[in-house]
C-alpha cells in the first residue's frame, strides 16, 4: 500500500532528499529576495489604491494628501527595515520577532507575537490569492464566476510547489517577481521622462470621471481620522517585512549579512515603487471610489453596476504605456502573477515559525521535522488548510479580507522592537569596549524609535479598522494564544510525569529465551521500564536501538546513556531521509537473515493517553511500527505501556459505559437480582 501512495507523492513533490543535502537548499540573495520579499514588493499593486479609496470619501480634493501619506509610509518602512537589520544580526537563528520577544520580554510576549504572526501569515495567503483572482477575473469571466474554486486551486498549486522545496519554488517565483519589479520601474522612469522632459499629457482611463464624495468638506477631527485611516490602509505595503528575520537560516553564509542586505534591497525597491505609483496616479488623474457604481459619475450620471474598477497600477500603466500595448500587457500579466506568488512569503515564514514553536512545545511536534524534500511539510499543509478555510468563509473577497490585515504585523513589530531595546540594555550593562558600546547605543536608538513609531501605528490601525474587521484578527490571535498555551501545558505535564528517575527498579518478569531489541527515542520512565522488562526476559541478545533523525538529539541520548551507565549496548541507525519505520524494519529483517531460527522480540515503550485530542499531539511512530512488524515473519512485538494520569479518566468512562450497557445486555435482557430470595433453593 505504501508503494501505491509513494508513486503519486514522488510525481507531485519529487524524490526524497538526504539530510546531508540540506546545505544545497540554502538560498542566495537573488533567490531569497523573491522568496521572502514577494509580499511587500507585490503590495504596491494594491496599497496605493487602498489609500486613494479611503481619501475618495472626501472627494477628489482629498487626493492632495496622498503624497504626504506616502511620505509617512516611506518613513515607517525605512524605520522598520533599519530596526529589523538589527534583529537579523542579533538573532540569526530564525526565530525573528518570536525569539526576540520571548528572550527579552518573556514567554507571554513571545507567544503573543507568535499568535499575531501565525494569523497574519494565514491572512497573507488569503488576501494575496483573492486579490490575484480578482485581478485575473477582470479579463477571464470564468474566474469571477468561480473565484472561490479558483482561489482554492491556486492555493493547492502553491502548496505543491513549496512541498518540492524552498530552493525550487524560489527559482519558479524569481522570474515573475523580477519581471514585475523591472516593469514597474520602467513605467515610473518612462512616465517621469514623458511628463518632465517631453511634457506629454498622460491621462488615466478614469481621468474624465467625477467622484461624488460621501462627506463633502471634512475638517477638524473628521479629516484627521480620515487621513489616519488612509495611512493605516497604506501600511499594507509593510506586510511581510518580518519574514526575512524569521527566515535567516534559509540564507547562504554569511547568513545575517545576506539577510540584512536583502532587507535593505527590499525596502528600497518597495518604497520607490509605492511612491512612484502614487506620484503617477496623481499626475494622470486616477479616480478610485469605495463604491464605484454609485460614487463615480460620468457626465453627472453614476457609472452603474456594470462598471469594473481597475486597480491603480493598471490605470497608471494604461496612461503611461497606452492601453493594450505590449508593455501594458506584460506588466498586467506580471502584476496578476506576482500577487499569487506573494503568498509564498507566508509559505516560507509560517512553517519556519511553526517549527520553532513546535521545538518549544507550543505546537504539535510533527511541525518541527522536515519532510522528504527538506521542507517543513506539515507546516506548509497546515497553512494551506487554514487559508483555504478563510477563503471559503469570506468568498475570496479581498475587500473583506484586507480589513483583517495589518493588525498582527504591527503587534509583532512593536513587541519585537521593544524586546530589542531590552536586548541592547542588557548587553550595554556588561560591555566595556567603547567601539562596541557606540554601536550598541546606535542600534538601541534605532530600535527605540521603531518601537515608538510602530506602537503609534498599531493604535491608529486598531482605532480605524477595528469595526471594519480587525476584531476578527484579534479574535484569531486569542484563539492561537489559548491553543498554544494549552499544548505547552500538556507537554510540560507529560514531561514531568515520564521524567526518568536516577535509579530504576526492575520488575520480576522473566519470559523465555529470545533475541530482544528495545526501541529507544529518549531516556524517560517508559524507556527505563521497557529496558527493565527486556533485561529480565533472559534474552540471548539484548540491545537498545535508536534511529538518528536529529543529530543533536542523538548526541544527547548517547551522552545521557553513558552518564547513567546503562549496561545495555546502544545501537544507532542512520536515517538520511529522516524515516523511522523503514530503518527499523530493515534492521530486524537483517537479524532474521543472520539467524533464521532465532525469534526477534521488538519491545516498544509507549505511554497511554486518555483524551482523543492528546493523540493529535504525539506522533504515531509506535503505531506505524507495530503495523509493519506484525507482518514480518519471526518477529514478536511487545508494547510496554506507561499510563499517564489522563488515561485514568478514560478508564472511568469505560467503566461507566460497561455498567450502563454491557455487551449483549440488550439481547440477554436485564440481569437477574442477586438477593436472598432469588438465590435460595425452591
What does this structure look like?
The protein has helices at 2-13, 29-42, 47-55, 66-90, 96-105, 107-137, 141-145, 147-163, 166-197, 220-234, 243-246, 255-283, 292-295, 312-321, 326-341, 344-359, 377-393, 398-401, 407-428, 434-465, 470-498, 525-535, 551-564, 581-594, 612-615, 621-629, 645-660, 665-668, 676-679, and strands spanning 210-211, 296-298, 301-302, 515-519, 541-548, 570-574, 600-608, 635-643. It is elongated. The chain is an alpha/beta fold and 682 residues long. The longest helix is centred in the N-terminal third of the chain and has 32 residues, at 166-197. It folds into two domains: 26-93 and 119-405, Up-down Bundle (Amino acid/polyamine transporter I), CATH 1.20.1740.10; 502-660, Rossmann fold, CATH 3.40.50. The strands form two sheets. The protein has a five-stranded parallel sheet with strand order 6-5-4-7-8, sandwiched between helices. The protein has a three-stranded antiparallel sheet with strand order 1-2-3. Strand 2 (296-298) and strand 3 (301-302) form a beta hairpin.
Amino acid at each position: 500500500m505504501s508503494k501505491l501512495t509513494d508513486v503519486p507523492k514522488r510525481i507531485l513533490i519529487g524524490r526524497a532528499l538526504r539530510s546531508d543535502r540540506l546545505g544545497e537548499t540554502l538560498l542566495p540573495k537573488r533567490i531569497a529576495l523573491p522568496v521572502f520579499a514577494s509580499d511587500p514588493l507585490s503590495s504596491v499593486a494594491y496599497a496605493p489604491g487602498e489609500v486613494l479609496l479611503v481619501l475618495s470619501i472626501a472627494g477628489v480634493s482629498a487626493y492632495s494628501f496622498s503624497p504626504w501619506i506616502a511620505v509617512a509610509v516611506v518613513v515607517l518602512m525605512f524605520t522598520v527595515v533599519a530596526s529589523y537589520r538589527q534583529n537579523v544580526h542579533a538573532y540569526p537563528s530564525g526565530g525573528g520577532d518570536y525569539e526576540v520577544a520571548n528572550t527579552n520580554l518573556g514567554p507571554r510576549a513571545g507567544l503573543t507575537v507568535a499568535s499575531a504572526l501565525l494569523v497574519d501569515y494565514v491572512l497573507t495567503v488569503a488576501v494575496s490569492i483573492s486579490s490575484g483572482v480578482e485581478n485575473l477575473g477582470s479579463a477571464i469571466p470564468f474566474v469571477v464566476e468561480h473565484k472561490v474554486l479558483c482561489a482554492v486551486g491556486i492555493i493547492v498549486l502553491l502548496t505543491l510547489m513549496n512541498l518540492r522545496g524552498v530552493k525550487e519554488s524560489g527559482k519558479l517565483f524569481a522570474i515573475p517577481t523580477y519581471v514585475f519589479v523591472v516593469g514597474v520601474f520602467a513605467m515610473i522612469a518612462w512616465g517621469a521622462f514623458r511628463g518632465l522632459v517631453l511634457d506629454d499629457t498622460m491621462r488615466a482611463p478614469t481621468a474624465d470621471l467625477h467622484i461624488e464624495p460621501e462627506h463633502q468638506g471634512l475638517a477638524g477631527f473628521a479629516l484627521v481620522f480620515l487621513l489616519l485611516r488612509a495611512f493605516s490602509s497604506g501600511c499594507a505595503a509593510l506586510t511581510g517585512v518580518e519574514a526575512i528575520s524569521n527566515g535567516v537560516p534559509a540564507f547562504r553564509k554569511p547568513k545575517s549579512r545576506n539577510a540584512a542586505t536583502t532587507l535593505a534591497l527590499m525596502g528600497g525597491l518597495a518604497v520607490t515603487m509605492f511612491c512612484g505609483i502614487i506620484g503617477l496616479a496623481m499626475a494622470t488623474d486616477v479616480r478610485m471610489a469605495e463604491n464605484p457604481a454609485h460614487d463615480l459619475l460620468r457626465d453627472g450620471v453614476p457609472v452603474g453596476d456594470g462598471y469594473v474598477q481597475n486597480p491603480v497600477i493598471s490605470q497608471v500603466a494604461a496612461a503611461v504605456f497606452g492601453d493594450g500595448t505590449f508593455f501594458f500587457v506584460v506588466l498586467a500579466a506580471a502584476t496578476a502573477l506576482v500577487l499569487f506568488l506573494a503568498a509564498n512569503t507566508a509559505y516560507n515564514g509560517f512553517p519556519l515559525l511553526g517549527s520553532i514553536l513546535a521545538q518549544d512545545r507550543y505546537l504539535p511536534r510533527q511541525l518541527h521535522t522536515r519532510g522528504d524534500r527538506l521542507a517543513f511539510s506539515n507546516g506548509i499543509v497546515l497553512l494551506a488548510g487554514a487559508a483555504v478555510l478563510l477563503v471559503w468563509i469570506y468568498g475570496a473577497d479581498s475587500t473583506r479580507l484586507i480589513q483583517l490585515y495589518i493588525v498582527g504585523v504591527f503587534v509583532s513589530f512593536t513587541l519585537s522592537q521593544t524586546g530589542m531595546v531590552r536586548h541592547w540594555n542588557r548587553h550595554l550593562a556588561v560591555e566595556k569596549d567603547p567601539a562596541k558600546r557606540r554601536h550598541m547605543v546606535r542600534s538601541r536608538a534605532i530600535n527605540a524609535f521603531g518601537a515608538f513609531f510602530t506602537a503609534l501605528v498599531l493604535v491608529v490601525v486598531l482605532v480605524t479598522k477595528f469595526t471594519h474587521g480587525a476584531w476578527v484578527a484579534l479574535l484569531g490571535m486569542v484563539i492561537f494564544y489559548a491553543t498554544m498555551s494549552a499544548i505547552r501545558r500538556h507537554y510540560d505535564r507529560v514531561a514531568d510525569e515520564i521524567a526518568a528517575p536516577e535509579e530504576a527498579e526492575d520488575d520480576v518478569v522473566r519470559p523465555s529465551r529470545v533475541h530482544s531489541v528495545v526501541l529507544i527515542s529518549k531516556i524517560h520512565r517508559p524507556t527505563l521500564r521497557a529496558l527493565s522488562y527486556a533485561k529480565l526476559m533472559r534474552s540471548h541478545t539484548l540491545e537498545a536501538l535508536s534511529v538518528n533523525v536529529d543529530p543533536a538529539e542523538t548526541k544527547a541520548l548517547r551522552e545521557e546513556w553513558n552518564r547513567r551507565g546503562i549496561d545495555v549496548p546502544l545501537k544507532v541507525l542512520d536515517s538520511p531521509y529522516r524515516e523511522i519505520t523503514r530503518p527499523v524494519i530493515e534492521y530486524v529483517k537483517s537479524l532474521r537473515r543472520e539467524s533464521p531460527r532465532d525469534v526477534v522480540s521488538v519491545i516498544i515503550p509507549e505511554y497511554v493517553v486518555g483524551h482523543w485530542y492528546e493523540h493529535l499531539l504525539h506522533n504515531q511512530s509506535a503505531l506505524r511500527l507495530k503495523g509493519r512488524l506484525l507482518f514480518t515473519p519471526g518477529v514478536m512485538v511487545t508494547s510496554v505501556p506507561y499510563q499517564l494520569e489522563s488515561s485514568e479518566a478514560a478508564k472511568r468512562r469505560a467503566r461507566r459505559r460497561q455498567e450502563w450497557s454491557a455487551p449483549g445486555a440488550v439481547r440477554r435482557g436485564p440481569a437477574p437480582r442477586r438477593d436472598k430470595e432469588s438465590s435460595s433453593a425452591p
